[in-house]
Design brief:
Blueprint (H helix, E strand, L loop, with lengths): L8 E2 L5 E4 L3 E5 L4 E5 L4 E6 L2 E6 L4 H22 L2 E8 L4 E5 L2 E5 L6 E4 L4 E6 L4 E6 L2 H12 L11 E4 L15
Antiparallel strand pairs: 1-6, 2-3, 3-4, 5-6, 7-12, 7-13, 8-9, 9-10, 11-12
Length: 180
């Protein structure tokens, strides 16, 4: 049995989970999310919990058992509490600012980057333009947008300049010594 898949998903107050033949819909105070699933997996709503089981014991059904349980759990957490991802900008003259629905980044290139903030997400710039906090109710969208912003200037290993996740540590390399 899947150690993750057998755990029931607790549904908090104010969150409604609806299951049809191939679609799970979770609706809460922050928004509404839907996810399709394969027929080998059975999703049942019982009281205040959602239970994910599998019909057959095939390799594919075992592989998807824990996956769909975690997807449903992420949807329930997202519509009730939401997700955040923080990025830190490190470098001389590197900064970020919000202009309407655009995130404008100055990252040491000759021109600034203007990135459109997707619908359903919000971005806040803190610490004098050195920290970006991205938040939303869809975990996949928050992670994807944070990854795209980080990809504009990846952190380099010598001085650590660039955009990195707040909980990420950069392994620094030793530079040239200059010895003949």
């Amino acid at each position: 049995m899947s150690r993750i898949g057998i755990k029931p998903v607790q549904v908090p107050q104010g969150v409604k989970v609806t299951v049809s033949s191939d679609l799970v819909t979770v609706e809460g105070p922050k928004g509404k999310l839907s996810q399709s699933y394969i027929p080998e997996v059975v999703i049942k709503v019982e009281g205040g919990t959602v239970q994910v089981t599998r019909k057959v014991n095939t390799k594919q059904a075992r592989a998807y058992h824990g996956l769909y349980r975690n997807l449903v759990n992420n949807m329930v957490i997202g519509v009730s509490a939401g997700f955040t991802r923080a990025l830190v900008i490190n470098g001389v003259g590197y900064k970020a600012e919000i202009q309407g629905k655009l995130l404008v980044l100055s990252l040491g290139y000759s021109t600034d980057f203007a990135v459109a903030i997707p619908d359903g997400l919000s971005a806040v710039v803190e610490a004098n333009g050195q920290k970006i906090v991205i938040s939303g109710y869809d975990r996949q969208a928050v992670g994807k947008f944070a990854s795209e912003v980080r990809g504009l200037r990846l952190p380099e290993p010598y001085k650590g300049k660039g955009v990195r996740y707040e909980d990420e540590t950069i392994r620094k390399k030793v530079g040239k010594t200059g010895v003949k």
